[in-house]
TrEMBL record:
Assembly with partners or alone: Heterodimer of an alpha and a beta chain.
Protein name (Swiss-Prot/TrEMBL): Integration host factor subunit beta
Keyword Flavoprotein among record annotations: no
Signal peptide (residue range): none
Role description: This protein is one of the two subunits of integration host factor, a specific DNA-binding protein that functions in genetic recombination as well as in transcriptional and translational control.
Keywords: DNA recombination, DNA-binding, Transcription, Transcription regulation, Translation regulation
GO molecular function: DNA binding; structural constituent of chromatin
Matches recorded under InterPro entries: Hist_DNA-bd, Histone-like_DNA-bd_CS, IHF-like_DNA-bd_dom_sf, IHF_beta
Pfam families: Bac_DNA_binding
């Protein structure tokens, strides 16, 4: 599902919302979540999951083309942990092939 799919779904489900209003609502929510993560806050949505920031320590990597060692600096990366209800709902569904998944 893409952002535009979500906007369309909201506009269909709530008849009083126009496409523009639904887009503004989705944008506001995503912006607020992004701002909170940038500030280092944790976001918890009961029944869905939580978003937090994980720290990846600095390390030595290797350039695959030259074999040269490269210093990789510390990074902060977003992390999502699904809630129990979401894990159980996803786990209860039969496995279907994803059209976008590469062929193995």
């Amino acid at each position: 599902m893409t952002r535009s799919d979500l906007v369309e779904l909201l506009a269909e489900r709530f008849g009083q919302l126009t496409q523009r209003d639904a887009d503004a609502a989705v944008k506001t929510i995503l912006d607020a979540m992004s701002d909170a993560l940038v500030r280092g806050h944790r976001i918890e949505i009961r029944g869905f999951g939580s978003f937090s920031i994980n720290r990846r320590p600095p390390r030595l990597g290797r350039n695959p083309r030259t074999g040269e060692s490269v210093h990789i600096p510390e990074r902060r990366v977003p992390h999502f942990k699904p809630g129990k209800a979401l894990r159980e709902a996803v786990g209860a569904q039969p496995v279907e092939s994803d059209e976008r998944a590469p062929d193995s």
